[in-house]
Structures are given as C-alpha cells and as structure tokens.
Amino acid sequence: MKTQLQQVKPGDIERRSFEIIAEELSAMGRVLPPDQAPVIMRAIHASADFDYAENLYFSPGALETGLQALKEGASIVTDTNMAFSGLSKPALAKLGGRALCFMADEDVAEQARRQGTTRAAVCMEKAAAQKEPLIVAIGNAPTALVRLCELIEEGRMAPRLVIGAPVGFVNVAESKEMLMRSNAPCIVARGRKGGSNIAAALCNALLYLAAGRSL
Amino acid sequence: MKTQLQQVKPGDIERRSFEIIAEELSAMGRVLPPDQAPVIMRAIHASADFDYAENLYFSPGALETGLQALKEGASIVTDTNMAFSGLSKPALAKLGGRALCFMADEDVAEQARRQGTTRAAVCMEKAAAQKEPLIVAIGNAPTALVRLCELIEEGRMAPRLVIGAPVGFVNVAESKEMLMRSNAPCIVARGRKGGSNIAAALCNALLYLAAGRSL
User: Fold this and answer.
1) Residues of chain B neighbouring A177 (CB-CB closer than 8 A)
2) pTM score, whole prediction
3) How far away is chain A from the Cα of B61, in angstroms, using its nearest Cα?
4) Does the predicted interface ipTM exceed a cut of 0.90?
5) Cα A92–chain centre separation
6) How far apart are alpha carbons B76 and A191 in whole angstroms?
C-alpha cells in the first residue's frame, strides 16, 4: 500500500497548516482573541499540541508592548542555543534587532561553577548588563526564569517583554507564576509545558506580526 | 504571596524530574518496556507531554541497532539547526561520532531552488552522499522524511537508524507511516506530534544509553 501524500507545494505547506489549525479550533468551539490568534496558532503549529490554545497567558498590553519593542529594534535574548537556532534571524535583523544567547560563553560557565548555580541563571545576569532594549525568551530553564524575576524585582532589569515558556517538572509552573505576578509584560505558557521550540515559535510569531505579516 | 520553589540542587533537577515522570506514569497505570523507558521518558521530559508514552513506535531491534551504531562511532544527521543545537555533542564525540546538519549550506539552498523542493529534502540527498555510518533524525520537515524514505527504497541510503519525529499538519503523519513501512530500523513519534526538541531528546537518550548511563 502506497501512502497518499497531499499534493501541497513547499511554499503552501505553512498556509495549509494554519488553515487546518483554524478549522480544528473552530470545530472545538474555541474562539481565540483575534490579536493573539497568530501567536497562539504558531505555538500549536510548532508542537501540534492544541493545549497551547488554553495555556498561553498574555499580560495586559504585553502583545502591543512586545511588538512596539521589536519595531524599535529590540534584541531577543534566549536561554538556550536551541531557541536561538529557532529564531528567525533575518526577520529580527530587518527590524534592527539581534539574537543573543550566552549559554556557551566561558565566563558564564565559570561564574555558574563558582556560585553553584546554573549557567542559565548566570545568563540572565549577563542579559541584565546589556545596554540595548531586550525581549527575553525562556524556553528551557526555570532557574533562568526565577533569576530573571528576581532581577526585575530588584530593579536591575526591565525587559520590554518576557516570553516565559520553560518546560518540565521541577519549579517550572512555579517560575511562570512568579513571572505572571511580576510587573513585566509577559506571554506565558502556563503549567509544565513549553520548550525551546515554543519559545522560538512565540518570538517568530511576534517578529512576523511586527513586520506586518498576518501569520 | 511568595511562590514556594522546591529546594532542588541544579544537578538534581533532572533526576527529580525523571522520578516525577515515573511516578505519574505509574499512577496512570502505564508500564513502559524497560529497555525503551529511558528513551520514552526523555521525550516526556523534553515536552512535559505524556502523549509520548503512547505515540512512540520502535521497530523490532531498532533500539539495539541504534545503540550499536552509536557505540561504533556513527554520526547523527539532523534536518534542522534546532535539533542539531539540542544534540549532546560532547556525548556524541566521546563515542566517536559527529553531528551534521546541512540546512544552512549554500549548495543545498541553490539545489532546492532549482528543483522546486525544500532544502530539508535536498539535505537528505546530501546525507546519502556521506561515506560514514549515519543515524538520521528528523524533527521538523516531513518533506525530508519522505525524501529519506525514497532514498532508502531506491537503495541509495541505508541509515543505521532513523528517528522520525517531524511535527505538523500536512503530510506529517503520512511521512511517518512511510517510514514505519520501510525496512529501516526506526523510532517514530506517530501522528502529528514531534519537533526538533523531541528529535534531539530521543537522540540524547540513545547517546546516554550507549555511553552506559541509565537515564
């Protein structure tokens, strides 16, 4: 038996995928807020997991603030090289921003060893030392998100937007609760789910919106 | 209200995470085949999605074949730079293999334009031209997996193991069915779910097992 593949041109696969996602959300009776829909749908697109239709939280005004920051050339810091890899660097560069990840930096490894903490947490301190406007996207390490919340609370850092999507079982949901109670504009994948792929997908959705693409 | 974080040392987070996953699988009455358990649990760990306890398929002998290949120094080709980023390069290097991804190669982009196909598909042709023993891990593009299955069927390629975990809505489940009907040893995330994070997690689980770690 031969597998029947749908005849869809490479350039049309993404459009067709979003049509399917929209159809299935509609069949589920789930109506997304129109401004958030492209962002939520891109998380579903990246994971084939419709839980993201329920678990994404947008703090009031976060979407507008984040888009404005990108239009003004804000850079994006990620907590993992995987999320960094998944970011659309051309889309970011066109808006004047750059992608940053400090995880592989030798000074970060050294400081983490000295402090007995994770490299991800130290990366957030390095991010706090940057002079440019930043969006911070966390796709893996709750320790990074906890440290980021502390830096925000201490007034040492004021990211224009935080994407909170660490994944896992230990302190992950808790770190997201900390973020949602902070004053930082944030988009959060509540609960245990998330990941570098989700963090990158959420960033890319914002990048495409900021560049004037609808999806 | 302060968030109560669990006091777990950075080095113990992963161990505690796997304990929680094991506890919840047990509470669900789900007993995993002992040899496959570390691989399945690592996919759950990467996504916090227990669907991977149900959707992972191992072709007969695939796990043993894949582990043997890694012990013999096989290299791993990924279809995305995200999956490449997520691979444990130190673990792979220790066993004598290397991580390969051709997605950013200029000749790949040029050939894809000429053929009207995706870069991911062309990457598989480039993989087929490699002389070393290979494990191929697909975390994103069904077009890559379809092309890989064709190359295998045409006898132009014989990967030691295929990790089939593309994600999405168009031809994704179908591409995995093609793989499962091929003669290639394979580990497959059946259905729509998967991703670069899952492909990398499955590879890393095998790398750790091949190196003698239990998890």
Assistant:
1) 3
2) 0.96
3) 23
4) yes
5) 14
6) 33
